[in-house]
Design brief:
CATH topology of the largest domain: Spore Coat Polysaccharide Biosynthesis Protein SpsA, Chain A
CATH class of the largest domain: Alpha Beta
Strand content: 15-25%
GO molecular function: glycosyltransferase activity
Number of helices: 10
Keywords: Glycosyltransferase, Membrane, Transferase, Transmembrane, Transmembrane helix
CATH architecture of the largest domain: Alpha-Beta Complex
Shape: globular
Oligomer: single chain
Organism: Pontibacter diazotrophicus
Order of helices and strands: EHEHEHEHEEHEEEEEHHEHHH
Protein name: Glycosyltransferase family 2 protein
Low-confidence stretches: 269-275
Family: Belongs to the glycosyltransferase 2 family.
Radius of gyration: 20 Å
Number of strands: 12
Structural class: alpha/beta
Amino acid sequence: MVYIILLNYINWKDTIECLESVLKLDYPAFRIILIDNASSNDSLYHIHDWAYGKGDQQLAPNPQLGHLVYPLIQKPLAYRHLSKTEALSVPEITDPLPPLITIQAGDNRGFAAGNNIGISYALKQSECDYIWLLNNDTLVERDALTQLVKHHQLSTGNLGILGSKLLYYHEPGLIQAIAGKYNKWLCTTHHIGGDITDKGQFDPPYIPEADYIVGASMFVSRAFVEDVGLMREDYFLYFEELDWTFRGKQKGWSIGVCTTSKVYHKEGASINAKEKKSELADFYSLRNRLVFTKRFFPVALPLIYLSFLGVALNRLKRGQFRRLGMILKIIFST
């Protein structure tokens, strides 16, 4: 049994579109855990209405991906709603579970904390063999989960985090990422295959030399989570997948990519990516460079601190003068 974990924050329309896609997966044994990170716009109300078959059921996906959403699934859809307290305190549910579990987090403590609620709930269920962390602003090919499970079962050694081929939702023929490379001296990341037209060049037998799996699709086994632990929650945003990956490597777990599992990602819908990078996103991106480097590559810290001079000059060039104070705060308080 695979437990698919979706994290919603405000963007309930994206989540409903994702649910319609996920519920068409051809893998026979999965459940969905949807956590709402204390959205301020009654997201769960709208999602529950959708499950009942009430309200506006019309969705407007990219026409190139409409087949992944339509025809809409039959309603009503059975679901069970839990508070965070109930999800974390109730022992294994012995009654038959519906295909969808919704959980209200109660507060927004970031990407890792929200997903950890779902992971913790999944691990309480003895039927849970795998967990798939999937961004809510995605659509999936119908065999995406089948391919992940098949890849994992055929793998040798300790396969930890397994990723999918991520393609842009608005340009489905263009790759967002296969996996990622990390430069410890600059604390920068690079997407393998990023912004390259997908011609199958990254499909088997190609094996990428990657340092981490991009967080929009992370497939893990129960054994991995029980050994490595939950994601660290103090990052709030960014670097969670890097941290999870490197903690796994310290315990002998590898990473892999299943390029036959295709996921279409809108990218950054929950953090207002249209502004390139919001102040919130900028803060955590910079702060977490220091947090991550201190934990895993302290020898590189002098260069990371030096790189903040270049960051400050860049923000000045953009006219983002208010962010200079933010940068100083990060340097002296992290």
